[in-house]
Amino acid sequence: MKRDAFSCCHPAVNFLFFVGAFCMMIAHPAYVAAGMAAAISYRLLLGARTGGKLVLTLLPVAALIALINPLINTGGKTILFAVFGRPYTREALCYGAALAGMLLSMLLWFSCYNLVMTGDKFTSLFGNLIPTLSLLLVMVLRLVPLLFRKGKQISGARCAIGKGAGEDAPLARRLREGLSMLGCLTTWALEGSVTTADSMRSRGYGTARRTGFAVYTMTGADWICMGILGALLAVVGVSVACGAATAQYTPDWYIAPIAPLSFGAYCLYLLTPTFLQLKETVTWHFLRSGI
After folding, report:
1. Strand 86-89 vs strand 254-255: parallel, antiparallel, or unpaired?
2. Rg (CA), the chain
3. Residues facing 79 on adjacent strands
4. DSSP SS3 for 196
5. Which of 55, 236, 248, 278, by CA, is between 20 and 30 Å from 152?
6. Which residues contact 145 (CB under 8 A, 6 or more apart)?
7. How far separated are the first and last CA of the chain, in Å rounded?
8. Is-contact 126 13, C-beta < 8 A?
9. Cα separation of 95 and 279, whole Å?
10. Dihedral of the CA atoms 104, 105, 109, 111 (nearest 10)?
11. Helix, strand or coil for residue 287?
C-alpha cells in the first residue's frame, strides 16, 4: 500500500473522516456521483493496481444491481417496457442506480478504511475505553482478508496432494471441494479466535491501562484538520436535515435542486484525503526543484 498524507494523520482524524463517509450516504444523484468519484479517487491513490482491480470488479456488480432493481420494484409512472408482463419503469431504474452507487461507495470506503485504520490505530483510540469491544472489532475487520489468504493456501495445498478440483471438474466435485474448504476455513477461524482470546487473557489485556506499540500525538495540523472535517460534517448534516438533498424516486419523482453550500461541503469533506495528498505532492516537487 502506498502511504499517503492522510494516513499519516492522527487516528482520531482518520476515524472521524470514515465515520462521516459511512454516515453520509445520500440518495440524491449529484451526491451519489460525487461520493463515487471521491471513493474511487482515494482508493486508487492508496494503491493503483489493487484499487483498479477492485473498481473494475465492483462496477459490473453495481450496474447489475441497477438493472435488476426495476424487475423487483415496479413502482414508478414512466414505463419503459414490460418484462414478463411486469412494468420496467424509469423511476425504479434510477432508484436502483442510486442504490448501486451508494453500495459501490460504501464498499470502496470500507476498503480504504481497512488500509488506513490499521489495528494498532484502532486499539490506540479505544483500547483503554472499550478494551474487549475494540479487540473484537479488530479481529472481525481483519478476518475477511485473512480468510481470503488462508483459502488460497488451503486450495494450493489440496491441489498439491491431488484433492483439488480444477475448472474443468464436474459441478458436483467442485461443490464438494468448496464445502470442504469452507469447513477448513471455519475450523481455522474458530480455533484462531479461541487461541487469540486465551493469549490476550494470559497477557492481562483489559485489566489495566494499556500502552500502544506506536505513539500517536495530536499535532496542530491534526487539530485543524479535525476542526475542518467537523465543520463540514455539521454543514452537510444540517442541510440534509432541512431537505437540501431530498431525493424521491418512487412512486413520485422529486429531486431537490442542488444547494451549493451543502453540496460543496459534501465534496470538500470526501475529497479531503485526496487534497492532502495533492498538497503533499506539490510541496515535495516544489522543495525538490529548489535543491
Report:
1. unpaired
2. 23
3. 89
4. helix
5. 55
6. 114
7. 28
8. no
9. 37
10. 10
11. helix
